Amino acid sequence: MNIVRTGFYTTLATAARLLAGLVVIKLVAWLAGPVGVGKLGQFMSLMSLLAVLADGGISAGIVKYVAEYRHDTQKLSRLLAAALWYALCASCLMGGVTLLFSRQIALWLLGDPGYASLIRVLAVAQLGIALVNYMLAVINGFMDVRRLAFIQVVGSALSIVLVVWLSRWLHLYGALLALVTGQVLCLAVGLPAWRRSPYFQSSMLRMHFDREMTRRLAAFSVMTLSSALLPPLINIAVRDHLAVRFGWEQVGYWQAVSKVSDAYLLFLTTAINIYYLPKLASTHERAPLVLELRHAYRYLLPAVVALAAVVYVMRSWVTRLLFSADFASANALYGPQLLGDVVKIASFILSYVMLAKAMTRLFVISEFVFAASYLALVYVLTAQFGLVGAMYAFTINYLFYLAFNVLVVRRYLGGL
Structure pTM? Predict the structure, then answer.
């Protein structure tokens, strides 16, 4: 399976997920207006955070070590038994905490303690979500991209049906409930598809504590949690700073352009995650590793440049379509943001070497350092250039990150 074919399947899966998300937003906007959309955003943020924490943040570790051990039956069996044990413990812990504070979470996030029962459903669902994460990570580790895309596309279709049905019955509450049950429903599609794969063994569903494998997976927990928790916290700090300095209307323009970038880059970042993480993890010699990195730049960089150029040329139409004519002032922010997107993908390709080779300490330190440098650059450049300075900060920070990753990869390759 090469990067082009992987890109095709991941594009289908990503498009299905985006379509499902659009259907949910449109339904909630129709049923509950702006207030409902606001509550949807808060609830989805909670779901995203818990989805990462449900299995203890070891999905990337499972992908790496499955790709590395797939020809070593004994090590693979030890890894998967330890991973399932780890995921079960993490999901029970997170589910228990969420269940205990369900009323407080509902009041804090949704402003209504009446949603506490929904939070309790989400808490109970953590076990199912952890199993889904485990299953998808194993499939990804075997680089079975076609099966992975099939599960995600069919799962998204079922989720759309569930959202439409429950929202007609329970309105906003039903739409939010469908988001939770839709995640667990993925098991109904994924398990039969996984069981029919040539590499499936019943032993993959056994649990056992293994000190060595648990320690290796725990390193990925640290990396995943640092990369999952830092960006939203830094973005909150950036929003607060921009709001104080320029007002919330200007923050809206910044947020709109950032969301457009997130949407079109999702296709590329998903392909990088699904293809390159297992590929780099299973490659241990210098020449094939260099070849994979060259292939990544050959295919992915032209793709991101082309997409960024299309978005820039059509920025006025994109802004009106996704938002409204009131967001016209955001069009001036696209240039530096899209340039930063290109640099971001260039740096991501190299940063996956740290993840694939389990450079835990270096990865975590770099996440903290570059999160702090981005925030500092936002403060300095917005003071000098205004709101567009936040976009300059984004681009400059990723240029620094790219230079850092070049040094890391050159040092790693030099040691092979």
Answer: 0.77
